[in-house]
Amino acid sequence: MTATTLDDDAALSHRLRGWMLSTMAARGMTAEQWARAAGVDPTTITRFLRHPDRALPSTLTVDKLAAAADAPFVLGALSAGKRVEKAG
Amino acid sequence: MPDIAAPASPYRHLDDNLRGWMRRVMRERQWSAEHWARTAGVAGTTITRYLNATDPDAGPRRRPTSATVEKLAAAAGVPFTYSQEPAMSDADLELPDDEPEVFRLHSALGVAILALEMIADAVDGRHVMARAALNHLRRRHPVAVEHMSKSREDER
Question: Are B59 and B16 spatial neighbours (Cβ–Cβ below 8 Å)?
Answer without folding.
Answer: no
